[in-house]
Amino acid sequence: MTSRTWLASLVLLVGCAPSEPLGPPVTPSAFCPQLARVICDADDDCCEATSEDPDCVDTETVACAETLGQLLEDPRVLYVPERAGAYLERLRADAAECFATPTADVRLAFEGTLELGESCTPPSVDDVPTTRDLFIAAAACGEDACRAHLDLGGHLDARCERREAAGTDACSHPFDCGTGEYCNLAAGWRAGDWGRCQPTQGEGWACTRDAECASAFCDAGRCTTRTGLAQCLVVAYPDLVLSTDPVLFLRLGERSGRSANDASSNATHGSYAEPVERVEGALSGSDDRAISLSGMGGSVSVAEIEALSTEEVTLELFVSIPEMGGGPIAMLLGEDGEFLRLDAEGRTLRASVPGMPGEGMMEGAPLALASADGALTEGFHHVALVVSGRDARLYLDGAEVSTVTGAGDLPARAALRLGLEPNEDPMMTRSLTGSLDEVALYRAALEPSVLTAHVAAARDGETRRDSFVYAWAR
Question: Residues 87, 93, 95, CA angle at the centre, nearest 5°?
C-alpha cells in the first residue's frame, strides 16, 4: 500500500462528514479505467455519429491519467476510494440518461487537507495560474473557498477562506463558489478581479453561459434542459460550434437564393446582396460551400442581432484572400455605430475596436490590432476577435497575434455586415475581394482552447476532444 493510499484510508477511519456520499471502494489504479468505460459506453449509446473507436477506453484512460494526474499527486489533496466509488455510481446513472442533467464534480472523489487560513496559492507564470491549477487549489481547500488575493507587491496569494451565503460571498475565480452557485466573473479571469457567488438559475431564466444554469445548459440565452449528450467525443465542426451556443451562425453554404440562414437556435437570418459566387468551403472533407466576393459590391448583412452580452463577445469566421485581394471582412455595428471591425489590406489582417475616452483619446476612438504583414497566406484561415471587459484579442488559426486593453462598452444589440463598407459617396464604398465561410457570433469570450479545437475540427473534418468530465482542465 502506497503512502497516499494509506493516508486516504486514514481519512476514512477518522470518518467523513455525513453529507459526503460513499460507495464501493475503487482503488486509484482502477479509477481511470472505470471512468473511461463510462465515458466510452455513453458515447456509443448517446451520440448519433460515434467514432466506433475500438481503442476508446485505452485512449480515455490515458486522457484521464494525464488530466487527473496532478490532482492525484498533489500532497494537499487525498484520493478517497469510497468517495470515488460514489462518484462513479453517480456518473453511470447520469450516463444512462445521456447526461441530460448535470453530473457530479470529479472533486467528489477527493478530500482537501488544508485548514482555514492556510495557503492554497497555485503555481503560476507571471501570477497567472492555469485553470487546472486553480481547480486543484480549490480542491485542496475542501468545503472552503480558495480565494486568490494580490499581496502588497501585486503578486498572487491565495488562502483557504470560509464560504458565505450565495449573493454575498466574494469569488476570485470560477471554483470559489459552492454547489448550486456560480461566480459572475467574466470568462477571462484575471488576478485582482472579484465577483459574487450567485445561485444558479432555473429553466427559462436569461443566461450567457452554462455555469449560470442549474441544468448546466444555456441555449439561445435561456437556461434549459439538455435533450441528450451535448459533448460527444468525436464531433464535426458545425456541431462543435453549436455546442458553444452561438447567438448567430451563418454557414454561408446556400447554393442559391437571397437568404443567409442562421444555423443557431435563434433563427436570426441574414441576406445576400449580389454579386455573390458559391465556391469550395473551408471545412476539410465537406461538400459544403462558401461565398466568394469579387470587390464589386457583394455582401451579407444581418439587420438586428438581439440579446448580446454587454461584457463579452466573440466573432469568428474563415477568410481566404487572393494575392491582390483584401478589403472589409466583417463589421459588427452597435446602436451607436461601428464596434468590431476586421479588414484585410493585401495579405495583412487588421482588426479594431472603439476605445474608452482617455488622455488624448476621444470617446469611441478606434483601438487598432493588427497581425504581422503577409499573415493571410493562400487558402482559408480561421480568424477570431475576442472581447472580454476592456481586453480585445485577435487570433489567427488559433494563435493569439495581438491584444489591446481599453475597449469601450459592448452593444446589447447589433447589426452585422460582411464584405462591404458603404459610403454616402458611391466612389468611396469599399468591397471585399475574397471568400468567407462559417461566420459565428457568441455572447461570450471564447477561451483559446475552444478556438484551437475549432481550427482542428475544420482542418481534419472532425475532431476528437476530451470528455466534458474534464472541462475544468481546458
Answer: 100
Task: Let me know whether 315 and 452 are in one domain.
Answer: yes
DSSP state of 24: S
Directed axis angle between helix 81-96 and helix 3-14, to 10°? Answer: 80
196 in any annotated domain: yes
* CA–CA gap between residue 317 and residue 146 (Å, rounded): 38
Read off the pTM.
0.70
In a domain, 101, yes or no: yes
For residues 284 and 432, membership in a common domain is answered with yes
Residue 80: give the domain boundaries.
Answer: 3-223
Q: Are both 136 and 241 inside the same structural domain? A: no
Q: How far apart are the C-alpha atoms of 305 and 441, rounded to whole Å?
A: 10
Burial of 16 (0-12, 13-18, 19+ CB in 10 A): middle
Examine residue 228 and state whether it is found in any structural domain, yes or no. Answer: no
Domain total for the chain?
Answer: 2
pLDDT tens digits, the chain, 474 residues: what are they? Answer: 333 332 233 233 233 333 567 889 999 999 999 999 999 998 888 886 555 678 899 999 998 998 888 888 899 999 999 999 999 999 999 998 888 777 888 888 999 999 999 999 999 877 788 888 999 999 999 989 999 999 888 899 999 999 988 888 899 988 999 888 999 886 567 778 899 999 999 998 888 778 889 988 887 678 888 765 556 888 889 988 988 889 999 999 998 889 999 999 888 999 999 999 999 999 998 888 999 999 999 999 999 998 788 889 999 999 999 988 899 999 999 877 789 999 998 889 999 999 876 544 556 678 889 888 889 999 999 999 999 888 999 999 999 999 998 888 888 889 999 999 988 888 888 999 999 999 999 988 998 988 998 999 999 888 887 787 877 765
